[in-house]
């Protein structure tokens, strides 16, 4: 049996994220560990729960079932050593357990055609309350849109509230986003987000360490949080009560040495009491908008962070350097709906010839692009650069 298949098998007999796995894998490797678990014997002086050996009794059937479900759902299995494996996840093998979970995933199931390592190379987690306020939802969406425009991938958990707002903010700019689930990657959970998860899979990725057929549990949500934190360069919490699960993600990010950020809310709002406490305790940097998030990420990792982080600087932005006609033409464009030159001219209040010239200059700068031969769409935000 190959290490790839052994890792898949292990994910079916023991709970992914079990704090005992990193040490066992380091001592034995996946093939020897699986063999020992199936036989019930000790190896290298190490032992494991009898439940693992019991679960291994039906392993061949369970493997066939998982692979069948994965084929139907279009899932693929990514493991350490693959070109698509984000090596930053390996940091999880070197941090203490949190709520009984730690360690890099045995592997990840992915729904979507994008390459995980590429999307995660510049990424940020945006998480927060499920029962968020309108303020929180709007702020999360705006921050997500801003960072997505700077080619930073938004990562979240697809839950109600802040998570969904973050995903939608990124998708609104026609950029990919990653959803990391506590159930298997084939299941649309929550069910009300089936359309959202379908679009995330079409344009980005839906990821899980849980094998096909697994359901979400409270422990799996907490274990999932470590992957969100480890995959990204930083975590932003938008609205969280004092005992919010999103603060668990922030704690993982802090433990891993990632950038930790929190958005303040009204001082009277219990929805923001957790974020306020994190800021007060020095566990998170206060951020209020996308450019501030990008600035913090740039300070963390200048080699991979986007260079366009000067949105609120005294020197101004790329938008300020545009001519009046170019600025009007840019404002008249839309992310999703293409307009021909005449339509852009009417929306901008310019002549068709002036609009055509402005669009050509915007295309040269990468702010706009032509589709279907004669129509134009917005491709990049100039007010962030």
List the main descriptive attributes of the protein structure presented here.
Rossmann fold, nine-stranded mixed sheet, three-stranded antiparallel sheet, globular
Explain this structure to me?
There is one protein chain. Residues 300-314 have low confidence and may be disordered. Helix content is 43%, strand content 12%. It is built from 15 helices and 12 strands. It folds into 3 domains: 3-59, no CATH class; 87-300, 3-Layer(aba) Sandwich (Rossmann fold); 319-384, Arc Repressor Mutant, subunit A, CATH 1.10.10.10. By secondary structure, it is of the alpha/beta class. The chain has helices spanning 3-13, 21-39, 50-55, 59-73, 116-120, 134-149, 162-172, 194-203, 218-231, 246-255, 273-280, 290-300, 324-331, 341-348, 352-365; strands spanning 75-78, 108-111, 123-128, 153-156, 177-180, 205-208, 234-238, 259-263, 285-286, 339-340, 368-371, 375-378. Helix 7 (162-172) crosses helix 8 (194-203), helix 9 packs across helix 10 (246-255) and helix 14 (341-348) packs across helix 15.
């Amino acid at each position: 049996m190959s290490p790839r298949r052994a890792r898949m098998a292990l994910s079916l007999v023991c709970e992914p994220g079990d704090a005992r796995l990193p040490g066992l894998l380091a001592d034995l490797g996946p093939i020897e560990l699986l063999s020992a678990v199936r036989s019930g014997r000790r190896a290298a002086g190490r032992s494991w729960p009898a439940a693992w050996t019991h679960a291994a009794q039906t392993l061949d059937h369970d493997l066939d079932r998982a692979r069948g479900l994965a084929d139907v759902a279009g899932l693929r299995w990514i493991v350490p050593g693959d070109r698509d494996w984000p090596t930053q996840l390996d940091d999880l093998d070197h941090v203490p357990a949190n709520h009984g979970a730690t360690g890099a995933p045995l592997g990840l199931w992915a729904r979507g055609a994008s390459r995980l390592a590429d999307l995660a190379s510049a990424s940020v987690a945006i998480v927060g309350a499920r029962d968020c306020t309108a303020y929180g939802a709007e702020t999360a969406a705006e921050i997500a849109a801003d960072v997505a425009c700077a080619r930073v991938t938004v990562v979240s958990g697809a839950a109600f509230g802040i998570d969904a707002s973050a995903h939608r903010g990124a998708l609104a700019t026609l950029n990919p986003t990653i959803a990391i689930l506590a159930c298997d990657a084939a299941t649309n959970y929550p069910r009300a987000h089936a359309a959202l998860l379908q679009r995330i899979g079409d344009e980005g990725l839906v990821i899980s360490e849980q094998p096909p057929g697994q359901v979400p549990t409270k422990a799996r949500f907490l274990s999932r949080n470590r992957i969100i934190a480890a995959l990204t360069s930083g975590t932003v919490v938008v609205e969280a009560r004092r005992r919010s699960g999103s603060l668990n993600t922030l704690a993982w990010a802090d433990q891993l040495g990632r950038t930790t950020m929190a958005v303040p809310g009204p001082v009277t709002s219990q929805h923001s009491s957790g974020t306020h406490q994190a800021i007060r305790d020095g566990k998170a940097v206060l951020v209020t908008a996308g450019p501030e998030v990008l600035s913090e990420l740039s300070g963390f990792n200048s080699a991979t962070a986007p260079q366009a982080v000067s949105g609120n600087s005294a020197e101004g932005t790329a938008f300020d350097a545009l001519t009046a006609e170019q600025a009007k033409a840019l404002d008249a464009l839309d992310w999703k709906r293409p307009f021909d030159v005449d339509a852009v001219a009417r929306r901008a209040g310019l002549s068709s010839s002036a609009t055509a010239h402005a669009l050509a200059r915007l295309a040269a700068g990468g702010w706009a692009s032509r589709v279907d031969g004669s129509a134009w769409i917005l491709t990049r935000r100039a007010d962030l650069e």
